[in-house]
Amino acid sequence: MGSGLVLKSNGELLTVASDAFVFTQRVAGGMPYAIGIETQPRNPSQTCAIEHESGVVANADAMDTIVKCTTDRFQVGGQVTGLQGSGLTLTAEFGGTLAIDANGSFVLPDAVPSGATYDVAVTGQPSGAAVCRVVGRSGRGVVADASVTNIDIACAAREPPPMMRFCEDRACDDFAPVVVKICPQQQPQCVPTRSTRIHLRVDGKRVSGGLVTLNGTAGLVTILESGGAQVSNTILQWYAAPYVVVRSNANVTFTYYDLSPVWGGATNVDFESALRSNSTLDATFYRHVSYATPTAAADLFADATDAVNTEEHMVEMTSEKIDAHFVPTELVVSGEGNFSFGNGMVSINYGNPPYIEAMGGILNTAMPRFAHETSHELFNEIGRPYGDNSSCLNEGVADALGYTSGFLPENEFGPMGLRGLDFELDGCPAMTEMHDIGNCPLWFVKKAGLLTPSFLRSLFHPQHDYAFDSCALNRHTGNSLLVMYTEAAGDGTNLGPVLDAAGIPHAATYQAAKSELGL
Q: In terms of DSSP H, where are the helices of 46-101?
């Protein structure tokens, strides 16, 4: 029952806080009584009715009055703008599913009980060039005592994958094409007579970057003739070019999908995107048109939503709404393809067919990196600074949060680092890669049984401003970690042995470390 139900009888007002009620004012035998509702309950909003509400007191207490309450239901809706075409579908756990074909106001078909949480998602995109998303966090909330009318669904033109442009309407005219040739290793000066233009396309539009594998190049050498690209015998990756020209007399194929060149024409490498959106994140999934991924987009959307909500709840902090792009290897234009951009956008490279098969599916390749990158977005929201250089701490906290929230497997956290060194055998000062430097001290916190949600929450809400280089595991950094970890562990736990096990120098005690740091 909601709170605030007030009954009235013979001038007495009674606030009902439990299933039973008794008025304090007594009524003499033989006298009439009448009970009415003065105020209906709220939180949740309910409507109550009374049975046996009146009568005449006999020779005993009148205890047969019954108050029955039902929770009120309210409509949930909002506005759609920018819609072009048909097929937009909204779905909510409470509220049902609604197809929308026009701009303007909408109302979900099922009324939602007061006190229930509604979470509206875009689960079907319209036909045409525009895609629709929930604006900010407007699609999620708790129904109070009135209809919800402020959910905003905005539709706009599709955007290219991160760090790319669409090359339509001469948008890539300021980029030079990449030109490579493939020659026999013994004849690197060869002059091939055949050529093709490789066009990487997303939803039918050329994009300005990408990566293709060059297959069948044993005994051959790939040579960059012009343009900006990274080239090996088997991989060609470029950041900014309207297209790539490959010249070769050898019989080669392109990409993990083994595409045959169209000599004398364009070899199109086509990908399509699918966007799902709710108040937690926008998730765009890209796939090659020939690669079957039956439920991957929906599964990633569900798991990614869960990951963001779990991490935010764990550290009691929110970032900007996450804009996630799950891309295959071919749409990676720089590095490994996993990035946090600091504005809510994250890019996740879920790999290629052989890697996906070896890892047991796209969820296994994508979700650990997603949990890591969204942790970076939360780290950016920390109010008190971790200067002078927090990059290694940021990397370690990202893996620790991903691991503790259940989305990053233990073997990606430690003890083996990315450079092949063992945290436990080699010690933290031996680490040279920034992820390893950040992970190593927190691995020993985990070994001590102290890497808990409350520990991580404290790291996101530090008690002090720090000034240390988290990538230099010297005494100053050790003192900072000792103070930080001790306060995060709470209950006066001595974190000195944890740093000793990690091989990181520090002061003898927590108080001595604070003194050296001037805290």
A: none
Structure letter (DSSP) for residue 176: P
Per-residue pLDDT tens digits for 387-399: 789 999 999 999 9
Among 283, 436, 417, residue whose Cα is nearest residue 362: 283
User: In which residue are the tokens 């994140």 written?
Assistant: 281
Instruction: Tell me the HSE value of 176 on the side-chain side, using a 13 A CA sphere.
Output: 8
pLDDT in tens, 457-498: 999 999 999 999 999 999 999 999 999 999 999 988 899 999
Extents of the domains making up the chain: 6-71, 78-157, 168-272, 278-379, 386-517
Orientation of helix 391-404 relative to helix 453-460, angle to 10°? 150
CA distance 472 to 89: 51
Residues 451-461 have a mean pLDDT of 97
C-alpha 392/C-alpha 438 separation (Å) is 4
Closest CA to 473 of 510, 511, 509, 440: 440
The two structure tokens encoding residue 151 = 């959910």
CA distance linking residue 446 with residue 439, whole number of Å:
10
